[in-house]
């Protein structure tokens, strides 16, 4: 490798894509792990190879393989990324006066039932960090992160994509009703379920898709749905009486199920699990505040955060 080949500046974001690609073994999986497009992964790797003046990976049937230059580069890339993380962490530890604004975009149920206690812990650690939370659909959240309008996106999706480091927790999607509903304590068939209207948080989105797929698998028509705008609106409508059913994430109705104000309707097969996934801007610098929040959120839907 000639001296002139590496005169251009090596960027950390290029190294991050290279290391991720090596670790997950495929462009598509690297794109999901980094929250960027597959074409961006390819373009970023090409930019790094142009900077270094040599190919780092070669195509193979089972995924990209390291070239000799790639094997030489990999340990240095990992060390540079680790040092960058250590620098930011140490600077944060050195000052209790970290002052910044953390912009988080997430779905309503995470904002209302999961984030508050975690944000309180974050404020206790960094009192001067200002937090702003906006809610939206999963596509809207991804768009805000990609546009640089949010430092962290938190999406709640069906467990259909590959599980990688961006998955923070798993949870349940549940069907609930008032305790007096005729289907409580029964295991209704899809045909029995479809005779009841389903209350939903919104008119579209992942939950509606999960519901449709459940009835398609049973080869019966999907039930009528009604969007009520929010989880709280849905719960209040069910508590007001009637024979409607609600479809909500389990963490949003834990208290009501515990108190007996709502009841869960058991179905077979069970609805697929939900995953809470972190979406981070592709070119963002390591942030100890974001890392700390992600750490607090790990396993947040199925238990206490990891210590």
The tally of strands reads: 12
What do we call the CATH homologous superfamily of the largest domain? Periplasmic binding protein-like II
Number of helices: 12
What's the CATH C level of the largest domain?
Alpha Beta
- Oligomeric status: single chain
The name CATH uses for the topology of the largest domain is: D-Maltodextrin-Binding Protein, domain 2
**Termini gap:** 45 Å
The biggest beta sheet reads: 5 strands, mixed
CATH architecture of the largest domain: 3-Layer(aba) Sandwich
Our estimate of the beta-strand percent is 15-25%
How many structural domains in the coordinates?
3
How are the strands ordered across the major sheet? 4-3-5-12-6
How does this structure look, described?
By secondary structure, the protein is an alpha/beta fold. The chain folds into three domains: 3-93, Winged helix-like DNA-binding domain superfamily/Winged helix DNA-binding domain (Arc Repressor Mutant, subunit A, Orthogonal Bundle), CATH 1.10.10.10; 95-170 and 275-297, Periplasmic binding protein-like II (D-Maltodextrin-Binding Protein, domain 2, 3-Layer(aba) Sandwich); 173-271, D-Maltodextrin-Binding Protein, domain 2. Helix content is 42%, strand content 17%. The chain contains twelve helices and twelve strands. It has helices at residues 12-24, 27-34, 38-52, 68-94, 108-113, 115-125, 138-146, 190-193, 206-217, 231-239, 254-259, 288-297, and strands at residues 57-58, 65-66, 101-106, 130-135, 152-158, 167-171, 173-177, 198-200, 225-227, 245-249, 263-265, 274-279. The strands form three sheets. The chain has a five-stranded mixed β-sheet, sandwiched between helices. Strands 9-8-10-7-11 form a five-stranded mixed β-sheet, with helices on both faces. A two-stranded antiparallel ribbon has the order 1-2. Helix 1 packs across helix 4. The protein is elongated. The two termini are 45 Å apart. Residues 1-6 and 302-307 have low confidence and may be disordered.
């Amino acid at each position: 490798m000639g001296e002139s080949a590496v005169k251009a500046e090596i960027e950390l974001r290029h190294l991050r894509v290279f290391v991720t690609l090596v670790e997950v073994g495929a462009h598509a999986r690297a794109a999901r792990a980094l929250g960027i497009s597959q074409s961006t992964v390819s373009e970023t790797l090409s930019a790094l190879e142009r900077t270094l003046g040599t190919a780092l990976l070669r195509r193979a049937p089972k995924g990209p393989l390291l070239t000799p230059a790639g094997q030489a580069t990999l340990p240095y890339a990992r060390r540079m990324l680790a040092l960058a993380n250590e620098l930011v962490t140490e600077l944060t530890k050195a000052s209790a006066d970290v002052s910044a604004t953390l912009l988080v975009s997430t779905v309503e149920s995470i904002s209302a039932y999961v984030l508050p206690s975690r944000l309180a812990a974050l404020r206790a650690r960094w009192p001067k960090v200002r937090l702003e939370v906006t809610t939206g659909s999963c596509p809207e959240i991804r768009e805000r992160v990609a546009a640089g309008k949010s430092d962290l996106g938190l999406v709640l999706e069906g467990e259909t994509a590959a599980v990688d480091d961006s998955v923070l927790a798993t949870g349940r999607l549940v069907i609930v009703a008032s305790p007096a509903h005729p289907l409580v304590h029964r295991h209704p068939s899809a045909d029995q379920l479809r005779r009841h209207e389903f209350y939903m948080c919104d008119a579209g989105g992942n939950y509606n898709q999960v519901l449709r797929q459940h009835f398609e698998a049973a080869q019966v028509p999907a039930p009528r749905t009604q969007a009520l705008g929010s989880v709280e609106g849905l719960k209040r409508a069910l508590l007001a009486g009637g024979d409607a059913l609600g479809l909500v994430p389990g963490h949003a109705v834990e208290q009501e199920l515990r108190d007996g104000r709502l009841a869960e309707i058991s179905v077979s097969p069970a609805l697929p699990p939900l995953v809470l996934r972190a979406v981070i801007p592709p070119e963002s610098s390591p942030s100890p505040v974001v890392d700390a929040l992600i750490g607090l959120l790990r396993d947040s839907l199925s238990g206490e955060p990891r210590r």
